[in-house]
Amino acid sequence: MRVDGNAEYNLRYVLMISSIGALGGLLFGYDWVVIGGAKPFFEKYFQLNSEALVGWANSCALLGCLIGSLISGAVSDRYGRKKGLLLSAVLFAVSSVLTGTAALFSWFVVWRILGGVAIGMASGISPMYIAEVSPAQWRGRLVALNQMTIVIGILAAQIVNWLIVEKVPEGATAEMIRLSWNGQSGWRWMFIAVAVPSVVFLFSVLLVPESPRWLVKNGKRDLASRTLVRIGGEAYAGAAMREIAESLTVNESARPRLSELFAPSVRKVLGIGIALAVLQQWSGINVIFNYAEEIYRTAGYGVNDILFNIVITGAINLLCTVIAMATVDRFGRRPLMLLGCAGIGISHLLLGMAYSAGLKGLPVLLLTLTTIGCYAMSLAPVVWVLIAEIFPNRIRGSAISVAVSALWIACFILTFTFPPLNRALGAAGTFWLYAAICFAGLVFVWRCVPETKGKTLEQLEKDLAP
What we know:
Blueprint: H1 11-45, H2 51-79, H3 81-100, H4 105-133, H5 139-164, H6 174-179, H7 181-192, H8 195-205, H9 212-217, H10 221-247, H11 264-282, H12 285-290, H13 292-298, H14 303-331, H15 333-356, H16 362-376, H17 379-389, H18 396-448, H19 457-463
Protein backbone atom coordinates (compact mmCIF):
# COMPACT_ATOMS: atom_id res chain seq x y z
CA MET A 1 0.00 0.00 0.00
CA ARG A 2 1.27 3.38 -0.96
CA VAL A 3 2.01 5.81 1.89
CA ASP A 4 -0.27 8.86 1.81
CA GLY A 5 1.60 11.76 0.20
CA ASN A 6 -0.58 14.24 2.09
CA ALA A 7 0.60 13.24 5.55
CA GLU A 8 1.54 16.10 7.85
CA TYR A 9 5.17 15.39 8.50
CA ASN A 10 7.03 16.65 11.54
CA LEU A 11 9.85 18.25 9.55
CA ARG A 12 11.63 19.60 12.62
CA TYR A 13 11.79 16.16 14.23
CA VAL A 14 12.85 14.34 11.05
CA LEU A 15 15.53 16.94 10.36
CA MET A 16 16.79 16.69 13.94
CA ILE A 17 17.22 12.91 14.00
CA SER A 18 18.62 12.87 10.45
CA SER A 19 21.15 15.58 11.35
CA ILE A 20 22.32 13.60 14.37
CA GLY A 21 22.68 10.48 12.23
CA ALA A 22 24.63 12.57 9.72
CA LEU A 23 27.17 13.59 12.39
CA GLY A 24 28.76 10.23 11.62
CA GLY A 25 29.41 11.65 8.16
CA LEU A 26 31.04 14.76 9.63
CA LEU A 27 33.50 12.63 11.60
CA PHE A 28 34.04 10.43 8.56
CA GLY A 29 34.99 13.50 6.50
CA TYR A 30 37.24 15.04 9.14
CA ASP A 31 39.13 11.88 10.05
CA TRP A 32 39.48 10.91 6.40
CA VAL A 33 41.02 14.20 5.21
CA VAL A 34 42.96 15.37 8.28
CA ILE A 35 45.94 13.34 7.12
CA GLY A 36 46.32 15.54 4.03
CA GLY A 37 47.33 18.59 6.10
CA ALA A 38 49.39 16.57 8.56
CA LYS A 39 51.24 14.68 5.82
CA PRO A 40 54.13 17.16 5.26
CA PHE A 41 54.92 17.07 8.98
CA PHE A 42 54.37 13.55 10.34
CA GLU A 43 56.34 12.16 7.39
CA LYS A 44 59.30 14.25 8.53
CA TYR A 45 58.73 13.36 12.21
CA PHE A 46 58.73 9.60 11.51
CA GLN A 47 61.39 10.06 8.81
CA LEU A 48 59.43 8.17 6.15
CA ASN A 49 61.97 8.10 3.36
CA SER A 50 60.55 5.51 0.97
CA GLU A 51 57.61 5.53 -1.42
CA ALA A 52 56.23 2.35 0.20
CA LEU A 53 56.16 3.87 3.71
CA VAL A 54 54.57 7.10 2.46
CA GLY A 55 51.92 5.10 0.57
CA TRP A 56 51.24 2.91 3.63
CA ALA A 57 50.91 5.92 5.94
CA ASN A 58 48.33 7.46 3.62
CA SER A 59 46.38 4.28 2.87
CA CYS A 60 46.55 2.22 6.10
CA ALA A 61 43.30 3.74 7.40
CA LEU A 62 41.58 2.18 4.39
CA LEU A 63 42.25 -1.28 5.85
CA GLY A 64 40.26 -0.18 8.90
CA CYS A 65 37.56 1.29 6.65
CA LEU A 66 37.17 -2.10 4.99
CA ILE A 67 36.98 -3.88 8.36
CA GLY A 68 34.45 -1.34 9.64
CA SER A 69 32.26 -1.61 6.56
CA LEU A 70 32.35 -5.42 6.69
CA ILE A 71 31.22 -5.56 10.32
CA SER A 72 28.72 -2.69 10.03
CA GLY A 73 26.08 -4.91 8.45
CA ALA A 74 26.29 -7.56 11.18
CA VAL A 75 26.38 -4.94 13.96
CA SER A 76 23.49 -2.88 12.60
CA ASP A 77 21.35 -5.94 11.79
CA ARG A 78 21.91 -7.64 15.16
CA TYR A 79 22.07 -4.73 17.59
CA GLY A 80 20.37 -1.93 15.65
CA ARG A 81 21.40 1.14 13.69
CA LYS A 82 21.55 3.32 16.82
CA LYS A 83 24.03 1.10 18.68
CA GLY A 84 26.16 0.89 15.56
CA LEU A 85 26.36 4.69 15.48
CA LEU A 86 27.26 4.78 19.17
CA LEU A 87 30.09 2.31 18.66
CA SER A 88 31.51 4.33 15.77
CA ALA A 89 31.44 7.51 17.90
CA VAL A 90 33.48 5.80 20.63
CA LEU A 91 36.02 4.53 18.09
CA PHE A 92 36.37 8.00 16.54
CA ALA A 93 37.10 9.59 19.92
CA VAL A 94 39.59 6.95 21.08
CA SER A 95 41.49 6.60 17.80
CA SER A 96 41.90 10.36 17.27
CA VAL A 97 43.57 10.88 20.64
CA LEU A 98 45.79 7.82 20.31
CA THR A 99 46.85 8.73 16.76
CA GLY A 100 47.79 12.23 17.90
CA THR A 101 49.89 10.90 20.78
CA ALA A 102 51.63 8.08 18.91
CA ALA A 103 55.39 8.04 19.55
CA LEU A 104 56.25 5.36 16.99
CA PHE A 105 55.17 4.99 13.36
CA SER A 106 53.95 1.44 14.02
CA TRP A 107 51.49 2.71 16.66
CA PHE A 108 50.48 5.60 14.40
CA VAL A 109 49.47 3.00 11.81
CA VAL A 110 47.55 0.90 14.37
CA TRP A 111 45.50 3.88 15.56
CA ARG A 112 44.88 5.12 12.00
CA ILE A 113 43.49 1.67 11.20
CA LEU A 114 41.22 1.87 14.28
CA GLY A 115 40.02 5.27 13.09
CA GLY A 116 39.39 3.67 9.72
CA VAL A 117 37.12 1.09 11.40
CA ALA A 118 35.05 4.01 12.74
CA ILE A 119 34.91 5.59 9.27
CA GLY A 120 33.87 2.29 7.68
CA MET A 121 31.06 1.77 10.18
CA ALA A 122 29.77 5.35 9.92
CA SER A 123 29.94 5.33 6.12
CA GLY A 124 27.46 2.46 5.97
CA ILE A 125 25.22 3.00 8.98
CA SER A 126 24.66 6.78 8.86
CA PRO A 127 23.06 6.94 5.36
CA MET A 128 21.13 3.73 6.04
CA TYR A 129 19.68 5.13 9.28
CA ILE A 130 18.68 8.40 7.59
CA ALA A 131 17.05 6.57 4.66
CA GLU A 132 15.02 4.40 7.05
CA VAL A 133 13.61 7.32 9.06
CA SER A 134 12.96 9.66 6.10
CA PRO A 135 9.65 10.09 4.25
CA ALA A 136 10.01 9.27 0.54
CA GLN A 137 9.55 12.90 -0.59
CA TRP A 138 12.58 14.05 1.44
CA ARG A 139 14.76 10.98 1.42
CA GLY A 140 17.14 12.16 -1.28
CA ARG A 141 17.80 15.49 0.43
CA LEU A 142 18.11 13.97 3.88
CA VAL A 143 20.50 11.21 2.83
CA ALA A 144 22.44 13.85 0.88
CA LEU A 145 22.62 15.70 4.21
CA ASN A 146 25.02 12.95 5.27
CA GLN A 147 27.26 13.85 2.33
CA MET A 148 27.04 17.52 3.26
CA THR A 149 28.25 16.74 6.78
CA ILE A 150 31.08 14.69 5.26
CA VAL A 151 32.03 17.77 3.26
CA ILE A 152 31.71 20.01 6.34
CA GLY A 153 34.01 17.60 8.15
CA ILE A 154 36.48 17.76 5.26
CA LEU A 155 36.38 21.56 5.25
CA ALA A 156 36.68 21.69 9.05
CA ALA A 157 39.78 19.49 8.94
CA GLN A 158 41.29 21.66 6.21
CA ILE A 159 40.60 24.88 8.12
CA VAL A 160 41.80 23.48 11.45
CA ASN A 161 44.98 22.20 9.79
CA TRP A 162 45.57 25.59 8.19
CA LEU A 163 45.02 27.42 11.50
CA ILE A 164 47.19 25.04 13.52
CA VAL A 165 50.19 25.16 11.22
CA GLU A 166 52.76 27.85 11.85
CA LYS A 167 54.05 29.53 8.71
CA VAL A 168 56.77 27.42 7.09
CA PRO A 169 59.81 29.48 5.97
CA GLU A 170 60.44 29.36 2.23
CA GLY A 171 63.24 26.94 1.45
CA ALA A 172 62.95 25.07 4.76
CA THR A 173 64.72 21.72 4.67
CA ALA A 174 63.15 18.43 5.75
CA GLU A 175 65.20 18.50 8.95
CA MET A 176 64.13 22.08 9.74
CA ILE A 177 60.47 21.05 9.33
CA ARG A 178 60.98 17.93 11.49
CA LEU A 179 62.45 19.95 14.37
CA SER A 180 59.88 22.77 14.14
CA TRP A 181 56.71 23.03 16.24
CA ASN A 182 54.75 21.81 13.20
CA GLY A 183 56.94 18.73 12.91
CA GLN A 184 56.94 17.88 16.62
CA SER A 185 53.48 18.91 17.88
CA GLY A 186 51.33 20.69 15.28
CA TRP A 187 50.39 17.59 13.30
CA ARG A 188 49.39 15.84 16.54
CA TRP A 189 46.76 18.46 17.37
CA MET A 190 45.29 18.03 13.90
CA PHE A 191 44.32 14.45 14.81
CA ILE A 192 43.40 15.09 18.47
CA ALA A 193 40.94 17.86 17.51
CA VAL A 194 38.43 15.32 16.14
CA ALA A 195 37.81 14.01 19.68
CA VAL A 196 35.59 17.04 20.40
CA PRO A 197 32.93 16.41 17.71
CA SER A 198 33.19 12.67 18.47
CA VAL A 199 31.99 13.24 22.03
CA VAL A 200 29.19 15.51 20.77
CA PHE A 201 28.14 12.76 18.35
CA LEU A 202 28.18 10.14 21.10
CA PHE A 203 25.80 12.01 23.39
CA SER A 204 23.58 13.21 20.52
CA VAL A 205 22.94 9.65 19.29
CA LEU A 206 21.47 8.83 22.70
CA LEU A 207 18.61 11.23 21.83
CA VAL A 208 17.48 9.59 18.57
CA PRO A 209 15.06 6.64 18.15
CA GLU A 210 15.99 3.32 16.64
CA SER A 211 15.15 2.84 12.95
CA PRO A 212 11.44 1.86 12.68
CA ARG A 213 12.23 -0.60 9.89
CA TRP A 214 14.80 -2.37 12.07
CA LEU A 215 12.31 -2.41 14.93
CA VAL A 216 9.58 -4.02 12.79
CA LYS A 217 12.03 -6.61 11.46
CA ASN A 218 12.93 -7.50 15.05
CA GLY A 219 9.35 -7.76 16.29
CA LYS A 220 9.19 -4.39 18.11
CA ARG A 221 6.16 -3.03 16.29
CA ASP A 222 4.90 -0.78 19.08
CA LEU A 223 8.17 1.14 19.26
CA ALA A 224 8.31 1.38 15.46
CA SER A 225 4.75 2.69 15.28
CA ARG A 226 5.49 5.26 17.97
CA THR A 227 8.42 6.64 15.98
CA LEU A 228 6.46 6.69 12.71
CA VAL A 229 3.56 8.53 14.38
CA ARG A 230 5.98 11.17 15.58
CA ILE A 231 7.41 11.47 12.05
CA GLY A 232 4.14 11.77 10.12
CA GLY A 233 1.04 11.17 12.23
CA GLU A 234 -1.32 8.22 12.67
CA ALA A 235 -2.28 7.80 8.99
CA TYR A 236 1.33 7.87 7.82
CA ALA A 237 2.37 5.43 10.56
CA GLY A 238 -0.38 2.96 9.72
CA ALA A 239 0.35 2.96 5.99
CA ALA A 240 4.11 2.76 6.55
CA MET A 241 3.72 -0.14 9.01
CA ARG A 242 1.67 -2.09 6.45
CA GLU A 243 4.21 -1.50 3.70
CA ILE A 244 7.12 -2.50 5.91
CA ALA A 245 5.34 -5.66 7.08
CA GLU A 246 4.45 -6.64 3.50
CA SER A 247 8.09 -6.29 2.44
CA LEU A 248 9.23 -8.73 5.14
CA THR A 249 7.93 -11.91 3.57
CA VAL A 250 10.03 -14.25 5.70
CA ASN A 251 10.58 -14.67 9.41
CA GLU A 252 11.08 -11.05 10.51
CA SER A 253 13.10 -11.84 13.63
CA ALA A 254 15.66 -14.05 11.87
CA ARG A 255 18.91 -12.43 10.88
CA PRO A 256 19.61 -12.40 7.11
CA ARG A 257 21.85 -15.14 5.76
CA LEU A 258 24.80 -14.42 3.48
CA SER A 259 23.26 -16.64 0.80
CA GLU A 260 20.30 -14.24 0.52
CA LEU A 261 22.60 -11.57 -0.92
CA PHE A 262 23.24 -13.76 -3.96
CA ALA A 263 19.66 -14.86 -4.56
CA PRO A 264 18.34 -14.07 -8.08
CA SER A 265 16.02 -11.40 -6.65
CA VAL A 266 18.96 -9.49 -5.12
CA ARG A 267 21.95 -10.26 -7.35
CA LYS A 268 21.29 -7.58 -9.96
CA VAL A 269 20.62 -4.75 -7.53
CA LEU A 270 23.66 -5.76 -5.44
CA GLY A 271 25.76 -5.59 -8.60
CA ILE A 272 24.46 -2.08 -9.30
CA GLY A 273 25.30 -1.00 -5.74
CA ILE A 274 28.83 -2.40 -5.95
CA ALA A 275 29.45 -0.85 -9.37
CA LEU A 276 28.26 2.58 -8.17
CA ALA A 277 30.52 2.35 -5.11
CA VAL A 278 33.56 1.49 -7.25
CA LEU A 279 32.73 4.22 -9.77
CA GLN A 280 32.55 6.86 -7.04
CA GLN A 281 36.10 6.02 -5.96
CA TRP A 282 37.72 5.29 -9.33
CA SER A 283 36.50 8.65 -10.61
CA GLY A 284 39.79 9.75 -9.03
CA ILE A 285 38.58 12.50 -6.70
CA ASN A 286 40.09 11.08 -3.53
CA VAL A 287 43.50 11.30 -5.18
CA ILE A 288 43.01 15.08 -5.25
CA PHE A 289 42.06 15.10 -1.56
CA ASN A 290 44.66 12.62 -0.28
CA TYR A 291 47.55 13.74 -2.47
CA ALA A 292 46.64 17.43 -2.66
CA GLU A 293 50.06 18.39 -1.34
CA GLU A 294 51.86 16.44 -4.08
CA ILE A 295 49.51 17.60 -6.86
CA TYR A 296 49.81 21.27 -5.97
CA ARG A 297 53.54 20.99 -5.34
CA THR A 298 53.93 19.53 -8.85
CA ALA A 299 51.92 22.52 -10.09
CA GLY A 300 54.48 24.90 -8.56
CA TYR A 301 52.92 25.87 -5.21
CA GLY A 302 54.81 26.18 -1.91
CA VAL A 303 53.75 24.62 1.42
CA ASN A 304 51.82 27.67 2.69
CA ASP A 305 49.96 28.15 -0.61
CA ILE A 306 49.22 24.42 -0.76
CA LEU A 307 47.43 24.49 2.61
CA PHE A 308 45.42 27.55 1.54
CA ASN A 309 44.49 25.88 -1.78
CA ILE A 310 43.30 22.82 0.14
CA VAL A 311 40.92 25.06 2.12
CA ILE A 312 39.59 26.50 -1.16
CA THR A 313 38.89 22.98 -2.46
CA GLY A 314 36.94 22.24 0.72
CA ALA A 315 34.85 25.41 0.34
CA ILE A 316 33.97 24.56 -3.29
CA ASN A 317 33.14 21.02 -2.19
CA LEU A 318 30.70 22.33 0.42
CA LEU A 319 29.03 24.85 -1.91
CA CYS A 320 28.41 22.27 -4.63
CA THR A 321 27.12 19.71 -2.13
CA VAL A 322 24.48 22.23 -1.01
CA ILE A 323 23.46 22.56 -4.68
CA ALA A 324 23.14 18.77 -4.89
CA MET A 325 20.91 18.69 -1.81
CA ALA A 326 18.60 21.25 -3.40
CA THR A 327 18.30 19.31 -6.66
CA VAL A 328 18.48 15.58 -5.89
CA ASP A 329 14.75 15.26 -5.11
CA ARG A 330 13.76 17.75 -7.82
CA PHE A 331 15.73 16.51 -10.83
CA GLY A 332 16.27 12.93 -9.70
CA ARG A 333 19.28 10.69 -9.19
CA ARG A 334 19.99 9.66 -12.80
CA PRO A 335 20.35 13.16 -14.33
CA LEU A 336 22.80 14.24 -11.60
CA MET A 337 24.85 11.05 -12.01
CA LEU A 338 25.02 11.43 -15.79
CA LEU A 339 26.03 15.09 -15.61
CA GLY A 340 28.59 14.29 -12.92
CA CYS A 341 30.30 11.48 -14.85
CA ALA A 342 30.51 13.68 -17.94
CA GLY A 343 31.74 16.73 -16.00
CA ILE A 344 34.40 14.87 -14.03
CA GLY A 345 35.60 13.03 -17.13
CA ILE A 346 35.99 16.26 -19.13
CA SER A 347 37.72 18.00 -16.21
CA HIS A 348 40.21 15.14 -15.83
CA LEU A 349 40.83 15.23 -19.58
CA LEU A 350 41.63 18.95 -19.46
CA LEU A 351 43.72 18.55 -16.30
CA GLY A 352 45.82 15.92 -18.06
CA MET A 353 46.25 18.27 -21.01
CA ALA A 354 47.38 21.05 -18.64
CA TYR A 355 50.04 18.80 -17.11
CA SER A 356 51.08 17.57 -20.57
CA ALA A 357 51.53 21.19 -21.73
CA GLY A 358 53.60 22.02 -18.65
CA LEU A 359 51.06 24.51 -17.27
CA LYS A 360 51.42 25.36 -13.57
CA GLY A 361 49.71 27.42 -10.89
CA LEU A 362 46.23 28.84 -11.50
CA PRO A 363 45.14 26.61 -14.45
CA VAL A 364 45.76 23.46 -12.40
CA LEU A 365 44.00 24.92 -9.37
CA LEU A 366 40.92 25.94 -11.42
CA LEU A 367 40.65 22.54 -13.09
CA THR A 368 40.93 20.65 -9.79
CA LEU A 369 38.22 22.93 -8.34
CA THR A 370 36.00 22.23 -11.37
CA THR A 371 36.52 18.49 -10.95
CA ILE A 372 35.65 18.65 -7.25
CA GLY A 373 32.58 20.78 -7.99
CA CYS A 374 31.23 18.27 -10.51
CA TYR A 375 31.86 15.41 -8.09
CA ALA A 376 30.22 17.20 -5.15
CA MET A 377 27.05 17.80 -7.19
CA SER A 378 26.75 14.21 -8.36
CA LEU A 379 28.72 11.08 -7.45
CA ALA A 380 29.60 12.21 -3.92
CA PRO A 381 26.05 12.50 -2.53
CA VAL A 382 23.97 10.55 -5.04
CA VAL A 383 25.89 7.27 -4.80
CA TRP A 384 25.27 7.23 -1.03
CA VAL A 385 21.57 8.01 -1.64
CA LEU A 386 21.21 5.17 -4.14
CA ILE A 387 23.10 2.65 -1.99
CA ALA A 388 20.83 3.51 0.95
CA GLU A 389 17.66 3.16 -1.18
CA ILE A 390 17.90 0.24 -3.57
CA PHE A 391 18.21 -2.78 -1.28
CA PRO A 392 15.28 -4.76 0.24
CA ASN A 393 14.35 -4.05 3.87
CA ARG A 394 15.26 -7.47 5.18
CA ILE A 395 18.86 -7.49 3.92
CA ARG A 396 19.55 -3.76 3.71
CA GLY A 397 22.19 -3.76 6.45
CA SER A 398 24.16 -6.65 4.97
CA ALA A 399 23.80 -5.46 1.36
CA ILE A 400 24.96 -1.93 2.20
CA SER A 401 27.86 -3.48 4.10
CA VAL A 402 28.95 -5.35 0.94
CA ALA A 403 28.57 -2.29 -1.30
CA VAL A 404 30.45 -0.02 1.10
CA SER A 405 33.17 -2.66 1.51
CA ALA A 406 33.57 -2.61 -2.27
CA LEU A 407 33.84 1.17 -2.05
CA TRP A 408 36.68 1.02 0.46
CA ILE A 409 38.52 -1.69 -1.48
CA ALA A 410 38.27 0.51 -4.58
CA CYS A 411 39.44 3.51 -2.55
CA PHE A 412 42.43 1.55 -1.24
CA ILE A 413 43.41 0.51 -4.76
CA LEU A 414 43.01 4.11 -5.99
CA THR A 415 45.06 5.62 -3.15
CA PHE A 416 47.79 3.00 -3.10
CA THR A 417 48.27 2.95 -6.88
CA PHE A 418 48.47 6.71 -7.45
CA PRO A 419 52.22 7.09 -6.69
CA PRO A 420 53.33 4.27 -9.05
CA LEU A 421 50.80 5.33 -11.71
CA ASN A 422 52.00 8.91 -11.44
CA ARG A 423 55.57 7.72 -11.85
CA ALA A 424 54.81 5.38 -14.78
CA LEU A 425 52.26 7.46 -16.71
CA GLY A 426 53.01 10.93 -15.43
CA ALA A 427 50.35 13.25 -14.02
CA ALA A 428 48.80 13.71 -17.49
CA GLY A 429 48.45 9.99 -18.22
CA THR A 430 47.10 9.26 -14.74
CA PHE A 431 44.30 11.81 -15.02
CA TRP A 432 43.48 10.64 -18.55
CA LEU A 433 43.04 7.13 -17.11
CA TYR A 434 40.59 8.49 -14.53
CA ALA A 435 38.76 10.34 -17.33
CA ALA A 436 38.29 7.07 -19.24
CA ILE A 437 36.81 5.44 -16.13
CA CYS A 438 34.34 8.33 -15.74
CA PHE A 439 33.19 8.03 -19.36
CA ALA A 440 32.69 4.27 -18.87
CA GLY A 441 30.67 5.11 -15.75
CA LEU A 442 28.49 7.43 -17.82
CA VAL A 443 27.54 4.52 -20.07
CA PHE A 444 26.87 2.26 -17.06
CA VAL A 445 24.57 4.80 -15.36
CA TRP A 446 22.68 5.40 -18.62
CA ARG A 447 22.06 1.69 -19.19
CA CYS A 448 21.71 0.19 -15.70
CA VAL A 449 20.87 2.66 -12.91
CA PRO A 450 17.14 3.19 -12.17
CA GLU A 451 15.48 6.42 -11.07
CA THR A 452 14.39 6.19 -7.41
CA LYS A 453 13.13 9.66 -6.46
CA GLY A 454 9.74 10.03 -4.76
CA LYS A 455 9.21 6.33 -4.01
CA THR A 456 9.08 4.64 -0.61
CA LEU A 457 11.72 2.04 0.18
CA GLU A 458 9.04 -0.64 -0.04
CA GLN A 459 7.87 0.58 -3.49
CA LEU A 460 11.45 0.46 -4.71
CA GLU A 461 11.80 -3.07 -3.41
CA LYS A 462 8.84 -4.12 -5.59
CA ASP A 463 9.97 -2.11 -8.63
CA LEU A 464 13.52 -3.47 -8.58
CA ALA A 465 12.50 -7.10 -8.10
CA PRO A 466 13.21 -9.19 -11.25
